[in-house]
């Protein structure tokens, strides 16, 4: 049997904009998806992840397409049958890179089961192929975080060459709270929607994309300097431009407001939006606890974790 895992992630700056070559900042979280793979006469997928309601059904066809794409990228028969178990501590909530984490986990497990000895670089590129089934035209930020962990600066090469990926040094791990709207989102549709609106309205979208770039650059400086107040302010600003490009939702805005009212340094949606999750920067156990209590009282699922803790 082959085994593998991949990290979940939060995006601190730049989701959606990264698809178009704007830099973004991503951090892995200490929850991962695990996979076990055995050769089998027929294809069996046993997905035992904790998920938001409807997540598995919504993603089922994309999951099958993703596995076929990955087998092809490994120069294997795309219809090669396996018995695949998927589990781990990362819940199947939209926005946490759960699809990328599962792609990396499955790619690693197949590599082990078939003794392919694939390097991390190859696993990352195979998982990127898998991500296309879920996100249409992904930037590659999610699979890169799922493969390597850590906090990273990511800039896609829109011409299709090597992406720019740099580790960001963070002074100490910082507490965050991830809040889930409980709504499953279709990343592919969200990514396509932004691309369509950008094309239709360059006068509005051009300046917003410029702002996103400035925010990522300022965000990196603030993260590296350990200036968490500044990081929080910039995250708030990032949420505002995500609202402007039409990817937030009523529930995401509500959770973001709730976290800010409790004193979070900053809060924004994370990932594709349109449902899924938000992230609040809550340095210190006490502040983290306050945001957790507010989410609990209001009946929302949450993850209390840290950025800057895990690397592969
Ligand atoms: C999803 O976690 C992030 C998006 O920017 C899509 C991508 O970059 O592939 C929405």
Features:
312 residues, alpha+beta, Ribosomal Protein S5, domain 2, Alpha-Beta Plaits, 6-stranded mixed sheet, 9 helices, 10 strands, binds (R)-mevalonate
Low-pLDDT stretches are: none
Percent in strands: 15-25%
CATH topology of the largest domain: Ribosomal Protein S5, domain 2
What CATH architecture of the largest domain do you see? 2-Layer Sandwich
Structural class: alpha+beta
Shape: globular
Radius of gyration: 18 Å
Averaged pLDDT, please?
A: 95
The count of strands amounts to 10
Give me the strand/helix succession.
EEEHEHHHEEEHHHHEEHE
Total count of domains: 2
Please give a structural write-up:
With 312 residues, this protein is an alpha+beta fold. It folds into two domains: 2-167, Ribosomal Protein S5, domain 2 (2-Layer Sandwich), CATH 3.30.230; 174-307, GHMP kinase, C-terminal domain (Alpha-Beta Plaits, 2-Layer Sandwich), CATH 3.30.70. 45% of the residues lie in helices and 23% in strands. The protein has helices at residues 55-73, 98-113, 120-135, 141-148, 187-200, 202-225, 228-244, 250-261, 285-297, and strands at 2-13, 24-39, 44-47, 82-88, 151-155, 164-167, 174-180, 266-270, 277-281, 301-307. Strands 1, 2, 3, 4, 5 and 6 form a six-stranded mixed sheet that branches. Strand 5 and strand 6 (164-167) form a beta hairpin. Helix 1 (55-73) crosses helix 2 (98-113), helix 1 packs across helix 3 and helix 3 packs antiparallel against helix 4. It starts with a strand and ends in a 5-residue tail after the last strand. The model has no long low-confidence stretch (mean pLDDT 95). The structure holds (R)-mevalonate.
């Amino acid at each position: 049997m082959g085994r593998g895992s991949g990290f979940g992630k939060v995006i601190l700056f730049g989701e959606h904009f990264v698809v178009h070559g704007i830099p973004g900042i991503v951090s892995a979280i200490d929850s991962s998806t695990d996979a076990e793979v055995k050769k089998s006469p027929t294809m069996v997928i046993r997905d035992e992840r904790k998920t938001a309601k409807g997540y598995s059904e919504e993603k089922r066809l994309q999951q099958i397409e993703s596995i076929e794409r990955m087998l092809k990228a490994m120069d294997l028969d795309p219809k090669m049958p396996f018995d695949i178990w998927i589990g781990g501590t990362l819940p199947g909530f939209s926005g946490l890179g759960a699809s990328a984490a599962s792609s990396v986990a499955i790619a690693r497990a197949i590599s082990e089961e078939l003794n392919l000895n694939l390097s991390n670089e190859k696993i990352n590129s195979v998982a990127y192929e898998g991500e296309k089934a879920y996100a249409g035209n992904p930037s590659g930020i999610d699979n890169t975080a799922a493969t390597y962990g850590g906090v990273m600066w990511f800039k896609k090469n829109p011409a299709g060459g090597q992406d720019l990926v740099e580790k960001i040094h963070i002074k100490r791990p910082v507490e965050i709270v991830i809040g889930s709207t409980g709504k499953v989102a279709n990343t592919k549709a969200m990514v396509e929607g932004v691309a369509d609106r950008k094309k239709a309205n360059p006068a509005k979208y051009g300046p917003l994309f410029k702002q996103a770039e400035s925010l990522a650059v300022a965000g990196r400086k603030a993260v590296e300097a350990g200036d968490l107040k500044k990081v929080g302010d910039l995250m708030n600003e990032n949420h505002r431009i995500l609202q402007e490009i039409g990817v937030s939702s009523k529930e995401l805005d509500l959770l973001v407001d709730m976290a800010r009212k409790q004193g979070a340094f900053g809060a924004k949606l994370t990932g594709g939006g349109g449902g899924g999750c938000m992230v609040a920067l809550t340095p210190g156990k006490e502040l983290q606890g306050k945001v957790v209590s507010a989410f609990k009282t209001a009946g929302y699922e949450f993850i209390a974790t840290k950025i800057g803790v895990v690397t592969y």
